[in-house]
Amino acid sequence: MTMENVAKRLHTQPQEVLARLRFIGNVAQELGYPVYVVGGFVRDLLLGVEDYDLDIVVEGDGIHFAKELSSRLHVGFVKHKQFGTATLITHDKVKVDVATARQETYEYPASLPKVKPGSIKDDLARRDFTINALALDISRNNFGALVDFFHGRKDLNKKAIRALYDISFIDDPTRILRAIRFEQRFGFTIERHTFTLLKDALKKHMLEAVHKHRLRDEFILILKESQAFKCIKRINGLCGFAFIEKKLRLKKKALNTLKKIEGTYTWFRDNYPHKHKVEVWLLYLMVLLEHLDSMRLKKVFKEFAFRRSEMDAASIFKEESSAMLSRLKAPIAPSVIYKILQPLPYEVLLCVFIKAHDKKVKDKIRDFLFTYKSIQIHLNGEELKALGMAPGPQFKRILLQLLYAKLDGKFKTKEEELIYLRHNILAKSCAKNGGKV
Ligand code: ATP
C-alpha cells in the first residue's frame, strides 16, 4: 500500500475545512477510533476539484462517534441504523456522513449487500472504482496520510476508471451508470478490462435486474451532472435505456433537444428574477420519455416511484406541447399567451421553449417568463369589498379579468384600473345578471 502524505494539499483547503478535519481527527483520537475521510472528498482533493462534503469512516462505532461529534459541534444528526451510518449538517451547511468501517457481501447479483463491521481496507474494498477507494487518515498522529490499497492515486494520474474486482458490475450494476458518470464528468477513460466487464454486465442485462428505486436515484444523479447530455449520449450508444423501458433508444431529434437543455437551464437560472427551483434532471427525463405512449409513460413514472407532480409534468409535456407550440405561432394578445403558459410547471415551460424553433414563439415564452409573470394589478379582494361588492367566487374571476386587461395594456395606474373595473367588468356583468354583479 502507498503511504503518501498529502497534508500539504490539505493546507490549500479553506481554513474551515482544515479545522473541521482536525477537529474530527481529535475527537476520534480521544475515543480511540482510527478515523478516515474517504471517497469523493479525497479524489477531488487530489484532482484539485472543490468538494466540501465529507464521508468519514471510523474503525469503531460510527453512530456513537457521530453522536459525540454532533454534541460537540452543537448540531443535530440523523442516524441510519440499518447501515450503521449517520449524517450531520454543520452550521455552514456542510454534510458530514459518518460510518462504521464495514465489509460487504452480495448474496446474489444486484442484491442489496449484507454488511458487517470491518477494517478500513474492507471498507475501501467494497467501493466502486479505485479512484473512489482512497482514504485520508485524519487522526492526530497521522494527519494527511493517504491510504491507497488499490492504486487509486495511480489511476487518478492516468485518468482511468477501474473496477476493484471482476464481478463488481454483477454485484452492483448501478456501478455501470456510475462509471459513465465519472468518465464523462472528469473526461477520464474506463480502463480496458473494466470496460470489458461493464459490457459483459450489459450483455447480461444486469441493469434491468436492479431495484427500480435504486436505478432512479443513480439515474437522477447522472441527469444532475453538468455533463448530463454527454452521459445520455454515452448510455444511448452503449446500451440504450432498456433499464427504464424496453427498447428505449434515442433518435437524433431527441438528442438534439436534449443537447440544448443545459444551456437553457443555465440561462434561466442565471437570469430569472424570481426565486424558483427548477429540477433540471426532470427536463432531461421528460424529453427522454416523450415518445413513449401515454400509458407507458405513466407506468414508468409509477414503477420508479417518481412524484405525482413529476409524472404530471411529463404527461403535459408529451400530450400538449405540440398544440401549445402551434397556438403560440399565431399573433395572440399577451393575455392569451398568459392563459396558455401560466398553468404549466417551469420544467414544461423550459422544454417547450427548447422545442420551439420559431423565434416569435420563443419571444412569447420569454416575454411570459420575464415580463408577464411579474405584472400585478393594484386591486385585491379587500379593495373590492371596500367598493361595496359582496365577496364570493366572482372575486377571483374579476381580478383575473383585470390582470388580463392590464397584460393587454388597457390601463396602467390604479385610477385607470378602477375605471376599467367599473366600465368594462362591473357594468357588463351587471347588465348580464339583470342588475346584480
Ligand atoms: P460525487 O462527487 O458525485 O458526490 P462521490 O464519489 O462522493 O461522488 P457518492 O455517490 O456520494 O459519490 O458516494 C460516496 C462514495 O461511496 C463513493 O466515492 C464510493 O467510494 C462509494 N460508493 C457509492 N456508491 C457506490 C456503489 N454503488 N458501489 C460501491 N461504492 C460506492
Considering the chains and any ligands shown, give keywords for the structure:
437 residues; Beta Polymerase, domain 2; Hydrophobic Seed Protein; alpha+beta; binds adenosine-5'-triphosphate; single chain; seven-stranded mixed sheet
Notes on the protein architecture:
This protein has helices at residues 7-10, 15-31, 40-47, 62-73, 120-125, 152-158, 168-171, 174-186, 192-203, 212-223, 228-238, 252-259, 261-271, 280-288, 294-303, 308-329, 334-341, 346-355, 359-370, 381-386, 394-407, 414-432, and strands at 35-38, 54-58, 77-80, 85-89, 95-100, 102-105, 114-117, 135-137, 145-147, 160-161, 189-190. It is elongated, with a radius of gyration of 28 Å. Helix 13 crosses helix 18 and helix 16 (308-329) crosses helix 18. The mean pLDDT is 92. The strands form three sheets. The protein has a seven-stranded mixed β-sheet with strand order 3-4-5-2-1-8-9. The chain folds into four domains: 2-158, Beta Polymerase, domain 2; 159-239, Hydrophobic Seed Protein (Orthogonal Bundle); 241-374, cca-adding enzyme, domain 2 (Orthogonal Bundle); 381-432, no CATH class. The chain contains 22 helices and eleven strands.
Highest CATH level, the class of the largest domain: Alpha Beta
- How many β-strand runs? 11
Radius of gyration of CA atoms, rounded to a whole number: 28 Å
Put simply, the count of helices is 22
Give the CA-CA distance, first to last residue.
85 Å
Determine the mean pLDDT. 92
Overall outline: elongated
List the ions, cofactors and other small molecules found in this model: adenosine-5'-triphosphate
* Main beta-sheet strand count, sense and barrel state: 7 strands, mixed
Q: List unreliable stretches of 5+ residues.
A: none
Q: CATH homologous superfamily of the largest domain, by name? A: Beta Polymerase, domain 2
* Lateral arrangement of strands in the main beta sheet: 3-4-5-2-1-8-9
Q: How large is the share of residues in beta strands?
A: 5-15%
The second-level CATH architecture of the largest domain is: 2-Layer Sandwich
How many domains, in number, for the residues?
A: 4
Which class do the helix and strand fractions yield? Answer: alpha+beta
